[in-house]
Amino acid sequence: MSRLYDFHGGIHPPENKQQSNGTPIRQLPLPPLLHIALAQSVGNAALPCVQPGQQVLKGQLIATPDGRLSVAVHAPTSGTVLAIGEHAFAHPSGLPATTITLQPDGREHWQPRQNLPHWREAAGSELRDFLQQMGVVGLGGAVFPSHLKLAAGRLQTLVVNGAECEPYITCDDRLMQERAVDIVAGIGIAAHALQAGEVLIGIEDNKPLAIAAMQTACHGSTFRVVAIPTKYPSGGAKQLIRILTGKEVPHGVRATELGVQCLNVATLYAIARAVLHGEPLLSRIVTLTGAVTHAANVEALLGSPLDWLLAQAGLPAPATEVIMGGPLMGFTVPDLAAGLSKAGNCLIVKNAAEFPPRPAAMPCIRCGDCASACPMELQPMDLFWFAKAKNFGKAQEWQLFDCIECGACSYVCPSQIPLVDYYRFAKSEIWAAERDKKAADLARRRHEFRQFRIEREKSEKAERLAARAAEQAAKLAASQPPASATLVASDDDPKKAIIAAAMARAAAQQEAKPLSESHIQALDDAKQAAIKAAMERAAARKAAAQPAAGAAADSRVAANPPPASGMDDAKQAAVEAALERSAARKAAAQPVAGAAADSSVAANPPPASGMDDAKQAAIKAAMERAAARKAAAQQANSETAANSVSASPPLASGMDDVKQAAVKAAMERAAAHKAAAQQANNETAANSVAASPPLASGMDDAKQAAIKAAMERSAARKAAAQQDQQDPT
Amino acid sequence: MTSLLLALLVMIALALLLGAVLGFASVRFRVQGDPLVAKIDAILPQTQCGQCGHPGCRPYAEAIADGSEDINKCPPGGEDGIKKLAELLGVEFKPFAADAPQPKPRAVALIDEATCIGCTLCIQACPVDAILGSAKMMHTILASECTGCELCLAPCPVDCIRMIPVGTDLTNWKWRYPTIPIKSVKTPAEPRA
């Protein structure tokens, strides 16, 4: 017998194990429904791979692991997938989680089981992938994926955790008593995978039957069963390693770096069932105890509803609180409709005698009892102080993250302070701050790259333009040495005409710049560019075609986009309308000295060539609507002038009806203009933006209607915002 | 007299020597940029929303560093951010001005894809390139990259972008601060004389 070591602190709470450790593990009938949550392990929730309504067999994969830190989930019995959606989840937050609801068909049809018979020869990675696909996680309560724990190699010691130190819980005790052979087989597999030199099985000495059963099963092997003194929390991984090997795992170091790994007996049992029998993790042993009539251990399918489970043990009053896990580290289940998860080792129904309500916390008297009880040798009173003051940086300096939340400090506190609640609060705040920091760093990187990208694009464009200009200048010089650029305008060579046009445009742009200084400052570059482009286009069009009829208006912007040929008419119209409105908004935002100006933007949608009657009707209706709205706006803002944006109908092209429509529209426009001009005499200006709805052709009506509504809404919002600006009261 | 001169010479020599060392150090170990700006920038939440009146978080950090701007202009940073800035700069905590934008819960933008006309205006407005799409094609927002700055809302001509508050789920749930439940204490009825 090698010597045993002791760890600092620890407590001896009443064990309360005798209620449930006397009877064998009970097999339960099939529950009416199974609620299998997808978040069954530390890390990412699994991704469902079945559809509602699908028939599944027992052991069939229903959710695949999402990444390395995640495990698969399987159907615990054969049946029908009823739903995949949010359902109550056994978690202290009470938040729902994505859950697969399965209706058992009662037949328990297995799918063909595939074990790993050659595990001795298999590569480590093959065994690990197999365990991940079998959904094996640590069943001691922490549900850490087991395949990651087997990733270490060449261990000195494998520590098998059968301590089960927390009061009330007896599931590992019964498992060791009844299924020691399978556990030892699992130890063999894990010891082989980890190439462990020695295997120490630590069991608290309050479980003599389990110790005897394990010793019998280990007979003939090199595994050693060690009875350790009963003291909470000897079942903590670091504490058990300390007891059995004398090694203390320092801060920030993993046990594997010291050549030790710790695995729970129930986990090893699950590994054995998976590797030797091809059974995925479908069920677990649960201790049902506390205020139930038949406290016992049961083998329950994962996803069994907790209230159904408790009913199997005889629940006297349904409205009582239930703790999942032990009384020291567990939490009160917010909703008993939740399904059993892989973490659910024990359900304790609270009764008033054993779980009196915790008295109100008194001030800390700095007695130091918590420090002498802390198994991690921390200073719980200082951590409490920092957490309470939300001084998280200081709490971290005092090794808050070494706290295993065992609850020994809260147990001994004479002031009844819920110390662990403070540590949990501090930890989750620090995690949240780290998440925010990460998000901020990502945003900063992306923002900086965007700025770099914009700069790069600008310089590339400038280079390109310079290169092209140089090329063309060279060509020009070669073809017509004496001619100057300004004289080429009247020439009929198309290339030269284009160059001339470009130069004229550039000149116009430069001329236009000083005029709208304030404008430019107010706008962002992209929009300004869009407006300018529209204006240039309009100017070019005007120069090319006959002058537009609008001689009355002084600040009129006519946007004549090219006729749509390959493009969807309606979409184009919508984009145009958006651009025009944005231009109008900008124009309106620009403060005009003195009296308000009548700046009307006339939009000429693409000329309709082969329009059908329905379209015409739509246009007419739109125009009438616009006119009506304008009239309403005038009436409503009688003291304000309207910077109205009117939309003119498409150009008539030969057809009688279209012509008539155009005439009508022109008349309406003229009327609107007159009204607007009258309003312009007043002092304050309001801007009503009336946009013509886009024309529908290829687009479906619903979408068009939605866009129309959205645009109207947007216009209204913008008008309101402008009025707010102008009218601060 | 000679001792006085000697002392004077020694002092001058020392001064020259130390001055040379300091001059060398100031050239050799020059710190590029303002480290204070980087520290302030690290505290700011990097939403790049411009609610402070500066075109991004870094310009605001520069303005704070040269003392031309208050520390209470960043609503996404919350009061926590102001506290951190106050601590860093050694100034008093200053609450948000009553008429200034107030902090609100974090949200992520969502484009109604049925209404989007593909104008690309929001793409140009997004400071962190979190919007995908091209001209006349539907746009969509990368929720994981969106900082919730709301800069895409104003340019949208069809008002198809909404802000969806980021809810609590199992991945970002936090333990609450332990509170003492308040119970009503019944005072015993005063015995009447």
What does this protein look like?
The complex is a heterodimer of chains A (729) and B (193). Chain A has 729 residues and is α/β, with parallel strands linked by helices. Chain A is 42% helix and 12% strand. In chain A, the strands form 6 sheets. Chain A has a 6-stranded mixed beta sheet with strand order 1-14-13-17-15-16, sandwiched between helices. Chain A has a 4-stranded antiparallel beta sheet with strand order 2-8-7-4, with no helix packed on it. In chain A, strands 11-10-9-12 form a 4-stranded parallel beta sheet, sandwiched between helices. Chain A starts with 25 loop residues before the first strand and ends with a helix. Chain B is 32% helix and 7% strand. In chain B, the strands form 2 sheets. Chain B has a two-stranded antiparallel ribbon with strand order 1-4. A two-stranded antiparallel sheet of chain B has the order 2-3. Chain B is mainly alpha-helical. The chains are: A alpha/beta (729), B mainly alpha (193). At the A-B interface, helix 13, helix 17 and helix 20 of A face helix 5 of B. Chain A: [4Fe-4S] cluster 2 binds at residues 374, 403, 406, 409. Chain A: Part of a membrane-bound complex that couples electron transfer with translocation of ions across the membrane. Chain A: [4Fe-4S] cluster 1 binds at residues 364, 367, 370, 413. Chain A: Residues 1-26, 546-578, 590-729 are annotated as: Disordered.
